[in-house]
Amino acid sequence: MNPSARRFRVDSSWWRHRSAAGDTLVAGSPLRLFRLGAEGSRLADVLESDGRVPTGTESLAERFLAAGAIHPIIDESTLTPLAVTVVIPAHDEDPARIAALVRQVSAAARVIVVDDGSATPLGPIDGAEVVRRETAGGPAAARNTGAARATTDIVLFLDADTEWDPAGWTTVLGHFDDAHVGLVAPRVAGRPGTDLVARYEITDSPLDLGPEPARVRAGSRVSYVPTAALLVRREVFESLSGFDESLRYGEDVDFVWRAISTDRICRYEPAAVARHRARPDIRALARQRWSYGSAAAALDERHPGAAAPLRVNRWSAIAWSLVAIGHPLVGGAVGAGSTAALARKLGATPNRWLVAGRLAGLGNLHAGRLMASAITRSWWPVSLVVAVLSRRLRFALLVALVVPNLYRWRASRSELDPVRYVALRIVDDASYGAGVWTGVWRSRRLGALRPRFD
Question: What is the model's pTM?
Fold first, then answer.
């Protein structure tokens, strides 16, 4: 892709410090530091104003793009029309609901509904080809069956319990004008509803990866995308031999990570939206989250380290651990020491202490949130035992359970009151963690519980 031919928006992490000695930019996911010369500052000025890439700065723009510091803006007037085959896997789904979904994707060149061994076989559906699998093989097998019949360059995998907004076609397909892009995922938002779980999932669905665009990769802000709605180049799909049918859960994350490992770009584009139905009750929610967690061990086996429950800077981890065991001053000193060490590493960077303070401060806050999530999610069985034995750590666990979730409740503007919201968050995290431990026990692999320190 030629960056000068497109427009871009800067990422929400974008922070630039100007000085007479040169500009310093912090942006991307994970955060990257760029020291900008005259041309780099000119590029940043233009990106911040109208998103253009001036001639002569294309190479630096590519670096920004690769780091996730900027994201493409799709211009409908320049797009090449692309034909799409939609593949909808279905198992014991309401035929009327599938027919409605088929109508929503009527702009596609072809729609294939794969009946994955439903107890009552699906009948004909207007606008779609129905393919019957006599034995249920799971989502991976059903998607592979449908994709094998696709003849278009692009395949859209769409779960039967989703709703597709036709206005999103142009936005997601526009990313494929870049030959390096192999996958594009729209936002999978919760479907509005009046029951408790639907009201919770409208802001906290595990499939909803938020309103910010991203380049998808492990260890970044958006480390995976679900195949509840996912567009894939057919040649990429075929080169990877499709989804791994031995995986009952996590096959979508595995597929995306395998594609990224071949240097194909996966983009998350929240300007296009599919909506997903919430689970019918709390028991079904817990069962779903358990199933997601149970895939972590298998994903760690195939992608070592990528499914780690915690990935932070080791000094941030030490600082927060000291705070948790009752030594906040020592923990603060460790945090200050890591900031000073970073300032020394920055060398001649203009205003290096300001830059180091921002990087270290954001890093420490992020690490604290991730550690609180790990001890209340994947590690909660151990955390519970430790809390029973230690009053001080019992308090730390209580803080980790309540404070981040209250902040999340306020930031998400959930319809629920804080008590029910926090209670559902605890059920959500505990169910996922139980699934992680189940997968670890079955596989006898500890990788899905092992932290990674940078």
Answer: 0.91
